[in-house]
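=== Structure Prediction Worksheet ===
Name of assembly: unnamed complex
Input type: mixed (protein and possibly other molecules)
Chain count: two
Listed entries:
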Amino acid sequence: MRSIKSYLLSRLVGGAALVLALAGGAMYVVMTRAIEAQFDRNLTDRVQGFASILFQTGDDVEFEFSEQIMPDYGRTERPAYFELWFADGRLLERSDSLAGLDLVLASEPENVPTHWTAPLPDGRTGRYVSQLIEVHHVYPEEGPDRPKAARVLVVVARGTEELVAAELEVLLYCAASFALLIGLIAVSSWMAVERGLEPAKRLAAKLDAVEVEHLPAHLDVGELPQELVPVAAKTDLLIRRVDTALARERRTTADIAHELRTPISELLTVAEVALRDGQDPEGSRRALGTIRDVAARMGRSVATLLELARLEMGASRLERVPVDVGTMMGELLRSLSGAARARSLEVANSVAAGERVESDREVLRIILSNLLGNALRYAAPASTVACRCERSESGWRLVIENQTDELQPADLRSLSEPFWRKDHARADREHSGLGLALSRALADKAGLALAFELEGRTFRAVLAPRARIDQPARS
Amino acid sequence: MRILVVEDSEPLRESLRLGLTREGFAVDAAADGEAGLSLARNNPYDVLVLDILLPKLDGMSVLAGLREKPDRPHVLVLTARDRVEDRVQGLNEGADDYLVKPFAFDELLARIHALVRRRYAEHSRKVEVGGLALDLVARTAAHEGQTLDLTAREYALLEYLALRRGQTVTREEIEDHVYGVHKLPASNAVDSTVCLLRSKLGPAGRSLIRTLRGRGYVLDQPRA
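=== Predicted Assembly ===
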């Protein structure tokens, strides 16, 4: 549908045109039938007129016809015709207009008027009527012995020009009325549709005026018809979502810019300071080492950002297989044991070897590595980091739990945003703040859900199949 | 001149410390806002080079914490935030200049020199006292048209005396402004440097720096 307005107008005007055409057609048929019936009645009246001027005296039949009274039977231009025949086939009289020719009968004569259409002797289309009539006696006092009344066949014909002209006139009236009504209906429909669509236009104008940089808190479109209220509400909701997504995008872009600007500054300054005193080989060597370390850190950040972008574009392919999460957890914890010892952390891992979950193996390894790394990095010193797998009839939940004094409930929403760190400054330069963002994106991609909970000092990262994340489970 | 660099990025912080020290500044450095504010409150810095996103206490809070300090240093905000509103906020909070990362070290130096000149109400790039002429931008000194071959420390001391020409400058002030907090000089380091400066100024120029016994030094026109 290209346009609601053209659709409504075409349907309304088209429907009205159809109804009017049917009604007009029916009216035309009825009216032409009436005109034709009137025309035939006129012919029949002519027959009766002839009957009234037939007289019988004894066996003689007299026909008192006068062209002065009925001039159309004698004129030369578009004349009418008649013939009167006795029942035995003898001609009683015919109009001068026939000039000796006969009218052609369409059927056997009857006592009732019979009408038909046939060409006239002069070639025009004509309408005929025939009827057998009984001649009146002039002298009824002749008594019961008077001769039997003669029967005469009267045939009258006249051209149909007037009939056709009348029918054409009716047709023209019908067509003109049709055109006028259609015009009126089109105009009123257009006005109604315009008025009906005005709220939609108002809504469109409001939306058109919305600037992506300044999304309104609420789309104020005034009073709307009932049908458009849900559209406006959904549009409002959509704008809120777009606003949130744009804010996140802008924040991420700003963070990326910041994360890249800082190491670029480091590279530039280290290099410039080293170049200003080229006579210091040891200083140059240290500067090169620093440049290498900074570049490597930048490389890791860029690689993670690219991986995130690939995940968001759906470019990476994941494979779901049963994974021995107990063995994987054990390997990861062994590789991180130094970090745990350095912070005097106790690790309580109750995920037994052989415990299996469905996931992409590499994705699960990256997610668990990030979660465990975060837990060991941010757990309160000398506290316990607990790892467990909870099972229920509906599935599994992997829980990594640590104690912390750093987080507030409001922080949970930001945990998996790129570059978010509790301390907004970059106190920990070894970690880019991308780990949890990558983990959540990977979990989404793998059909898993990664959620964070905070109960008092206890922080939990929960990984589970997407439909399971909110359901309670038992260990 | 004494500078405090508050920057959480270790490579940047150490490079700034090294580069600015080589330029003759006395440089202290702090890795977070709390340490930076503490140093700035307790030492007479001429210029504070301050990052905004800092651990423990952000740069804006450091600026706010220094608002009431008498003779507070001029502040150059050094940050990756480049939005106009960030700059406006920084300047409104009391920053004297704003430099966005990444930056050229030469530009940073030029801005620091400009802040130093502002601090000592020195609007010209050249200071002339008697026959002594200092180019504060080129960081060169000449006496009677002869360029002096000075070390960075010697130049820094001479520049400090020249910026406060005609005023008595105590040894403690020289130590505070020419030597960093982590490089406290030996008790006679200031006297030794002044002695070297006098010898480089030659017989005609040595009387430019006078010793006020028990009080300090003053750089001024030689007395007739």
